[in-house]
Amino acid sequence: MRAPLFTALLALTAAAPAPAPAPDPAGARWWSHIAEIASDRYEGRLTGTSGYDRAAAYVVGQFKALGLKPAGTKVYLQPVAFVEQTVDQSTSRLTLSGAGGTRALRIGDAALLGTRFTQPPKIDAPLVFIGYGLALPEAGADDFAGLDLKGKIVVYLNGGPATLSAALKSHSRAAAFGPALERAGALGVIAIANPKSMDIPWARIRLSGSQPGMQLADQALRDVHRAMFSASLNPAQADALFAPAGHRFADLLALADAGAPMPRFDLKQRLAGTVVAHRRPVTAPNVVAVLPGTDRTLGAQYVIVSAHLDHLGIGEAVGGDRTYNGAMDNASGIASMLECARALAAAPPRRSTIFLAVTAEEKGLLGSRYYANRPTVPAASIAADVNMDMFLPLYPLTRMVAYGADQSSLGAAAKSAADKAGIALAPDPAPDRNLFVRSDQYSFIRTGVPALSLKFEPANDEEKAMEKGFLANRYHAPSDDLRQPVDRAAAGKFNGYLVNLITDISNTSARPTWNNDSFFRRFAR
């Protein structure tokens, strides 16, 4: 808003051209970090590559320049060991067989083989549809109950009943599902996405088939401890699975869209095939620094500001470009973390602040899971986590979602900081996208630490179209690069909000607590 004096002067000099708006220095500094680590010379920052290591070195340099103290196991670094798995989609084979005969399930067109579980070299097992695949008996949602799944491949449709919160559906999918498969003795799983909750079309999803997956080398931190076949199915070809059992996929989608109960039934087919996979050990570091707090007592507690540093590296070409730069996903979050560190270093709050750039988020939140379970400070001293991941400053910041705000006292802090900044907090607009569990705050939630993840929320149809366009065309594509339009002033406003939020959490004497009705309260240490 222009000041009244400027308005008066403008009226007196109406014939003169209006001066260009002054550049936003906060937004410019933020963009300078992105321009560096999302440039081609970092080669997309794939976990375990030299490009990622160069990005980690850049973050270390920034931490040093700000005077932050090292908080890794090797100065600023916390090396994490992984097992990388690459599946050769082109030479692997799958077939469906039933009363109508045997036919190939074409990999790429109809299905993609998963990379996060250890794939068995061969599979031959009957298929069973288990509805939404939820495994939350304590919440009254257990799609595994009463089924004999030993030696079978389970098929599920993403979603859940309307009676279950988005947070619980997401938690079941991310944390409870793998162990439930293992307990049931299942040999594998086929996931089917609801087209309405797919971020990107199948034509681009299939390009990810050449991407390696990873597991933590630390077996104690894995959800599944044995070989487990996994694949995803193209929803456009899902009728091939359901027709022999007398069901239409369209009918099941209608139930999912309504949040209605889902049937479970034998699919009357078997899946057989061979999976060609290659595995190797890989190491990549989390990058960790600490700003000591000013309070003699509260300084022994830590608020973590986190963002993931990795992206997808060099992959399948789209429009002739093979470098997946990850400017918004998630150089933007790293840049905001660094700008938050800059501001707090000039005015340290009472609690200590850990700045954490994690690896292997794109491989299943593995770097943050390692840190949350193997922290470099006493686990009980971690009071909260605030995470930034692809918060999407595509338009002015007037509305925002704080994922997890309804679960703990951090919600009040998020709202207070938003009110001061003139930002409205909105509820999760698309719970079936599972955003509550799709970034690194969830690793801390699983260990009992209250946490938030922040993202811009569209305020009108034009902004909705901008976000939809990003997801359809740039998300996990080479075009998430330095040439895309970004609202740098909005990013600067977001960074100011972030600093105020962290300061509020860190200076409040009472430690953040889970709400009494939060499901995740049970994980508190």
Q: Can you describe this structure?
A:
By secondary structure, the chain is of the alpha/beta class. Helices cover 29% and strands 24% of the residues. It has helices spanning 4-12, 25-37, 50-65, 166-184, 202-205, 239-242, 249-257, 327-346, 366-373, 410-421, 441-445, 461-473, 488-507; strands at residues 69-70, 77-87, 93-98, 101-104, 111-113, 122-129, 135-136, 141-142, 153-157, 188-192, 213-216, 229-233, 265-274, 277-291, 302-308, 313-318, 321-324, 352-358, 382-388, 399-403, 424-426, 451-456. The strands form four sheets. Strands 1, 2, 11, 14, 15, 18, 19, 20, 21 and 22 form a ten-stranded mixed β-sheet that branches. An eight-stranded mixed β-sheet has the order 4-3-13-6-9-10-12-5. Helix 2 (25-37) packs across helix 8 (327-346), helix 8 crosses helix 13 (488-507) and helix 10 (410-421) crosses helix 13 (488-507).
SSE topology:
Layout: H1 4-12, H2 25-37, H3 50-65, E1 69-70, E2 77-87, E3 93-98, E4 101-104, E5 111-113, E6 122-129, E7 135-136, E8 141-142, E9 153-157, H4 166-184, E10 188-192, H5 202-205, E11 213-216, E12 229-233, H6 239-242, H7 249-257, E13 265-274, E14 277-291, E15 302-308, E16 313-318, E17 321-324, H8 327-346, E18 352-358, H9 366-373, E19 382-388, E20 399-403, H10 410-421, E21 424-426, H11 441-445, E22 451-456, H12 461-473, H13 488-507
Parallel strand pairs: 6-9, 9-10, 10-12, 15-18, 15-19, 19-22, 20-21
Antiparallel strand pairs: 1-14, 2-11, 2-14, 3-4, 3-13, 5-12, 6-13, 7-8, 14-18, 16-17, 20-22
Helix pairs in contact: 2-8, 2-13, 8-13, 10-13
